[in-house]
Every structure is written in structure tokens, then in C-alpha cells.
Write a structure and sequence with these properties.
21 helices; 66% helix; metal ion binding; three-stranded mixed sheet; metal-binding; 3 domains; membrane; elongated; MgtE N-terminal fold; CBS_dom_sf; Tetracycline Repressor, domain 2; CBS-domain; CBS domain; mainly alpha
Length: 451
């Protein structure tokens, strides 16, 4: 068996490629990249830092370079396009569909865009300009503007002949769309019905009901809707009901992956564009903003502690136990926050079920708070043999964990209402709340009970 046949998307794959690079085996590298499909090449490039990636570009076949660029992370695409001239980009996008051209030109400067637009086929140019007119986070930006649609009243035989003559179907085509003379969507026709039904019948006879997405719908909302309905193909219409594009299985998957990726990054305070091998300066800058915000919240917690300097000076045990209170509240709140953000992403939280969620999380927080407050209280008594300190930390943990769970529900729902991504800032706000409530309850109770 050849080495190339063992080349899979695993750690062994990367080790094998690194071995070829170290040995400067150009023949094997050329052969390897000829064997890989577009997606495999893109994922391979994303698995190496910029310096190695620059070496790998030379082995990508010229006829697939544009498709690879459209597939890789935006950060990588921008770095590559930055060093190209307008004529280079013209060559790269030649033969690509409108979606792929739009992806490549997204990261180009306006001068290159203008030049490349002028070189495009008129129909492709109109589609690309239409895609670029949409905001980045709406369905219209993800859709395929090329649709297979026919007018009502046409026979199935005529549709088949029309499709063969114009070579309209491809691997991703799943439905033929039926429109009126104004291109208003009336229904869809499956490829199975097109083939097996009597050819003299008209498309109206076998037209299916359809579900559509609005082109201005937020991608995150669309992702939740598509997951809930398990859809792999959706027509896209504008506010007037006119057909403007479609989402195929690949587009649906991209929306879902991008939505999940964005949520994961936002929960950690990482920018949308950052990937594993983003340059040091760029990563440091994007993360530094949220570290700075977190520092401000940390000083707020420190200010609360400072208000109880007198009690801390007298009882050293309080300073030792204080991090335990904040930590238990923090983890309890984070668990709830994660569950709620996932529920929002899946479109599961609306109306009356929010009240049920408040009650559930409050009871979960109180139940766990009571159990772990007693555990920590017992440990504290064995450690310090002081009933008053034991009482203080037991009550503080119960209070903080109960309120932390409630905050884990309220914070993301309030942020959602304010049209702020809960994944982006929810964790920072929750940490502040649990720290402040934890220290305030612990030290406040100590002041009341012990002093």
C-alpha cells in the first residue's frame, strides 16, 4: 500500500506531510496534493502555521486553488490574497461559482474587487454583487443564488429537456423550484417525481408544499430552525416572496458549523476570525480586549473585599476560605450558563418555558448549594474547629450557588433581549456576579455573625 493511501485526517496525516516537507520530497508532495479533495486540502492548510502553509501553497494544483481559497478560514484567505495582484485574483476566481467568488473577494481590497468584478461574466458578477450586499450574519450571505426553477404549467418532459440542454443539475441539486412569471415561489418539485411521474403531466400536479427562509434572517436563528426541522435543502425568498436563492446541504452544514464555532469562541472571549495558527500579535490583540474587561471586573470584586478589611485583619481563616465561596458559585453559574446558551442557540427557550427554567435552576442551585455548603462547612469545622466560621461559609456557599444558578439563566436571556450575543459577554458578567455576591455574602455574614 502506498503512503498516500494511508493519508487520513489524523495526527498521522500531519506527521507524514511534515516528513515529506523535511525531506523536500517534491514529487511525493505533488502527487499527494493531486490525490486530495478540496476539503482535505483546506483542512490540511489550516493545520499548519503560516510559514509552513506558504510552502504548501506551491503544491496545490492551479485548477483547484480558487476552490481551496473559498474553503479555508477567512484569516488564512486574507493572508494569501494580501500579496496578490488583481490579475492574479482574476485568474484564481475564473471558473468559480458566485458563492466561491464572493468568499474570495470578501477579503480583497476595494481596488481589486472593482477590477475583478469587471472581468466576471455578467450573470456571475450580478450574483456576487448581490451576495456582497448582504450583511455577514444573514442567510442571504450564505445562500447559493443559482437555482433550478421553472414556470408553472410546464410539462415534466419539457422540464427534463430544459435541464439536459442547459446542464442545470449538479451533485447538490435536490429540488426544482416552481415560480410564477414574477419569480414568486409557488412550490417545489422533487427529482424523483420529475423522473417517475407521467411525463405529459405538468409540474403543478406534483408540486410539494415548501418551507422557506427569509434572506435577511439571522444566521444563528436559521441554524436553530434548520436543526429543529432537520432540513437539508431550503429555498430562500425575500420579503416579497420572490425566490432569490437556495441553501443546499453543504450551505446548511456551513451555517451550523459557523454558528457552533462562533458560540464556542465567544464563550472564551476569542474573536470570530482567530484560528489555531493565527499570528501571535493578532491573537494577543483579539484576546487582550476581553482580558482587559475581565481585569476591570476583578478590581470590582477586589473593591468589595476591601470594604471588609477590618474583619479580614482579625480572622485569617476567612482569607483562606474566601476563594472557595467564589469558586463554587462560579462553576455552578457556568454550568447553567452553558445549558441556557445552548438552549438559546437551538431555539428552545421562549414564552412560558422561561419561567419553568427560572424555577428549575433556582431549585437546582439551592439543592446543590445545600449539599456542598454542608460538605464545605464540615471540612471547615475539621480544619479550624470554629462553629461561627463554619456557619458563615455554609450560609455563604448556599447563597452564592443559589444566586449563581439564577444568574446563569437571567444573564443570557437579558443579553439576548438587548440583542447582545450571550456567548460573547455572558461569562464575564457571570464571573463578576458570582465573585461579588460570593465575597459580599461571605464577608458580610462574617461581619454580622463573628464580629
Amino acid at each position: 500500500m502506498r503512503d498516500e493511501e494511508k493519508y487520513t485526517n489524523t495526527e498521522e496525516q500531519l506527521l507524514y506531510l511534515q516528513k515529506l516537507l523535511d525531506e523536500e520530497d517534491t514529487d511525493a508532495l505533488n502527487e499527494l496534493f493531486q490525490e486530495l479533495d478540496i476539503l482535505a486540502i483546506a483542512r490540511t492548510l489550516e493545520s499548519f502555521p503560516a510559514k509552513t502553509r506558504d510552502l504548501l501553497w506551491d503544491y496545490i494544483p492551479d485548477d483547484v486553488l480558487g476552490e481551496v481559497l473559498a474553503e479555508v478560514d477567512e484569516d488564512i484567505r486574507a493572508d494569501y490574497i494580501e500579496d496578490l495582484s488583481a490579475s492574479d485574483v482574476e485568474q484564481i476566481v475564473r471558473g468559480l461559482d458566485a458563492q466561491e467568488v464572493a468568499e474570495v473577494l470578501d477579503v480583497a481590497d476595494e481596488e481589486i474587487k472593482t477590477t475583478v468584478y469587471a472581468s466576471l461574466d455578467q450573470e456571475i458578477r450580478a450574483q456576487v454583487e448581490n451576495l456582497h450586499a448582504y450583511e455577514d450574519d444573514v442567510v442571504g450571505r450564505y445562500m447559493d443564488p443559482e437555482t433550478v426553477n421553472v414556470k408553472q404549467g410546464v410539462s415534466l418532459e419539457a422540464v427534463q429537456r430544459y435541464i439536459r440542454i442547459h446542464h442545470l443539475l449538479d451533485d447538490e441539486s435536490q429540488q426544482i423550484m416552481i415560480t410564477d412569471k414574477d419569480k414568486r415561489l409557488l412550490g417545489t418539485l422533487s427529482l424523483i417525481d420529475l423522473i417517475k411521474q407521467p411525463q405529459e403531466a405538468v409540474v403543478d400536479d406534483y408540486m410539494d408544499d415548501f418551507f422557506t427562509l427569509n434572506d435577511q434572517m439571522k444566521v444563528s436563528d436559521a441554524a436553530a430552525l434548520l436543526r429543529s426541522k432537520e432540513l437539508h435543502f431550503v429555498p430562500v425568498c425575500d420579503s416579497d416572496g420572490l425566490l432569490v436563492g437556495q441553501l443546499n446541504a453543504a450551505d446548511v452544514l456551513e451555517i451550523t458549523q459557523d454558528d457552533a464555532d462562533m458560540t464556542l469562541k465567544h464563550m472564551s472571549g476569542v474573536s470570530d476570525e482567530e484560528e489555531v495558527f493565527t499570528p501571535i500579535a493578532r491573537s494577543a490583540k483579539s484576546r487582550g480586549i476581553w482580558l482587559g474587561i475581565n481585569l476591570l471586573t476583578a478590581f470590582l470584586a477586589a473593591f468589595v473585599i476591601g470594604q471588609f478589611e477590618a474583619v479580614l485583619d482579625q480572622i485569617v481563616a476567612l482569607a483562606i476560605l474566601m476563594p472557595v465561596v467564589a469558586s463554587m458559585g462560579g462553576i455552578a453559574g457556568s454550568q447553567t450558563l452553558t445549558v441556557v446558551i445552548r438552549g438559546l442557540a437551538l431555539g428552545q427557550l421562549a414564552g412560558n418555558n422561561k419561567r419553568w427554567l427560572y424555577n428549575k435552576e433556582l431549585w437546582v442551585g439551592m439543592s446543590n448549594g445545600l449539599v456542598w455548603a454542608l460538605v464545605v462547612g464540615g471540612i471547615s469545622y475539621l480544619w479550624f474547629s470554629d462553629l461561627l466560621i463554619t456557619l458563615v461559609i455554609t450560609l455563604a456557599i448556599f447563597i452564592n450557588m443559589s444566586l449563581a444558578n439564577l444568574s446563569g439563566v437571567l444573564i443570557p436571556l437579558v443579553l439576548k433581549r438587548l440583542q447582545i450575543d450571550p456567548a460573547l459577554s455572558g461569562a464575564v458578567i457571570l464571573t463578576t456576579v458570582t465573585d461579588v455576591v460570593g465575597f459580599l455574602s461571605f464577608l458580610g455574614l462574617a461581619t454580622l455573625i463573628i464580629l
